[in-house]
Amino acid sequence: MTLEVRDLTVEIGGRRAVDGVSFDVPDGGRLGLIGESGSGKSLTALAILGLLPDGATAAGSIRWDGREILGLPDRELARLRGDEIGVVFQEPQTALNPIRTVGRQIGESLRIHEGLSRADARRRAIDEAERVALPDPATIVTRYPHQLSGGQRQRVAIAMALACRPRLLIADEPTTALDVTIQAGILSLLADLVRDAGMSLVFITHDLAVLAQVATTAVVLEHGRVVEAGEVSQLLEAPASPVTRGLVRDARATLWRPEGRS
What we know:
By secondary structure, the protein is an alpha/beta fold. It has one domain (3-255): Rossmann fold (3-Layer(aba) Sandwich). Helices cover 40% and strands 25% of the residues. It has helices at residues 41-49, 74-80, 92-95, 102-114, 118-131, 137-140, 150-162, 180-197, 208-211, 232-237, 242-253; strands spanning 3-12, 15-25, 30-34, 56-64, 67-68, 85-88, 168-172, 200-205, 217-222, 225-231. The chain has a 6-stranded mixed sheet with strand order 6-7-8-3-9-10. Strands 2-1-4-5 form a 4-stranded antiparallel sheet, covered by helices on one side. It is globular, with a radius of gyration of 18 Å. Keywords: ATP-binding, Cell membrane, Membrane, Nucleotide-binding, Transport.
């Protein structure tokens, strides 16, 4: 089992924002954390990454490859992030450094975790840009984030997250800020990369139609608690909780249709 979360709680200012959340992500597993805004899904991911905001405290257990990582020193967690665990956040404009070329940013984790020279990291950055289907990779790595479109910036963020070939990718609403056409391309890219690399995935979203395109199992959250969990297909066809039924109604109104139906 790659990732095991048990009875995770997160408190902020005396309020319990995540309350007893548990789930597993096996090697190669693709799990979604889904719920409305304020359900605790992003805080759960931040707790796994050791990136909770100031004033937040976490308890319970988070085990990575059998090793307890909740409460590890920042230096040890930093070695995991970008190397064994990659992360893609919702808005690449804020995740990318505006005064560094995207090639330098893709290559940074390679220099840190793999000890590559600047020249070797640049060559790898070109390869990674090509891997995420950025146009003219040798040129685009010389660009700055503001010179790229939103979809291209998100592809750069994915390239950064996957450059060191992590075993787990955490993607926190990575397509929310994109239009539907670009969103579809990013989802297809993520699904292909995860499948081809055999990596595990934790995908965070409020949209069950989106989740159905990239994950096979899901944990549904409301007010920090798990209200339902199971195969995505089962949640779509026979939702048991009111929260999931609401998510299914939204999915039916947008992109999702049951397999084999038009």
